[in-house]
Design brief:
The protein has a single domain, classed as Divalent-metal-dependent TIM barrel enzymes (TIM Barrel), CATH 3.20.20. It is 39% helix and 12% strand. It contains five helices and six strands, in the order E-H-E-H-E-H-E-H-E-H-E. It has a six-stranded parallel β-sheet with strand order 1-2-3-4-5-6, covered by helices on one side. The longest helix has 21 residues. The mean pLDDT is 93.
Length: 197
């Protein structure tokens, strides 16, 4: 196992300075986000020169880009928002090889229309699950086209809010392009901490 860091943990004015600071801490593995270079996490487009520059900065320091963030609200109540997220996911997927990674991290989203990180009671409805399955099928078509892995993180505020639901989604999708990334703290529901071992 290699110790890595998530983008945003160490912040400096430029990408070069940020990566230098990470290396100075003895870390050579990172989950990257395009916000570090002034773009949205899922951009409308990515300039090839920028992709090459990002790759160069990582390669010069021998930093492994373990994954790149590609989070969008996969069950947003507005279908157009989901469609836009998928379109932008394709843009990011098309840039993965050039920037030096083959993994995009995702979350599953919430019915809350204003915050992807706020739980909504409708997340538990079958309709929300079915929307997730439809969106994920489309996302996995993109993953297969570009030969990348989608690494889904369960979150208490999202429709996939437990290890059990993550397993269910893996089983329903049946795709080698879908994996799970776990931050254990993100699946503790209110009142459960005392029962965790």
């Amino acid at each position: 196992m290699e110790i890595g860091i998530m983008d945003g943990t160490v912040v400096r004015p430029t990408l070069s300075e940020t990566l230098d600071a990470i290396v100075n801490h003895g870390i050579y593995c990172m989950q990257f986000g395009l916000g570090r270079v002034g773009l949205p996490e899922l951009p409308e487009q990515i300039d090839t020169e920028l992709c090459d520059q990002i790759r160069k900065e990582f390669d010069e320091r021998n930093i492994n880009m373990a994954a790149i963030s590609g989070t969008f609200n996969m069950i947003h109540p507005d279908l157009q928002q989901r469609t836009d997220g998928l379109r932008r996911l394709r843009v990011l997927a098309s840039a993965c090889e050039r920037v030096g990674t083959s993994i995009i991290t995702l979350c599953t989203g919430t019915r809350d229309p204003n915050s992807m990180w706020r739980r909504h009671p409708d997340n538990d409805l079958l309709e929300a699950w079915n929307d997730l399955v439809r969106t994920m099928h489309q996302a996995l078509q993109i993953a297969e086209e570009y030969k990348i892995t989608l690494a889904l993180e369960p979150e208490v505020a999202n429709v996939v809010d437990s290890a059990q639901k993550a397993r269910r989604l893996l089983d329903e999708m049946g795709s080698p392009y879908l994996k799970i990334v776990i931050d254990g703290a993100n699946i503790f529901h209110t009142g459960e901490l005392m029962h965790m071992r």
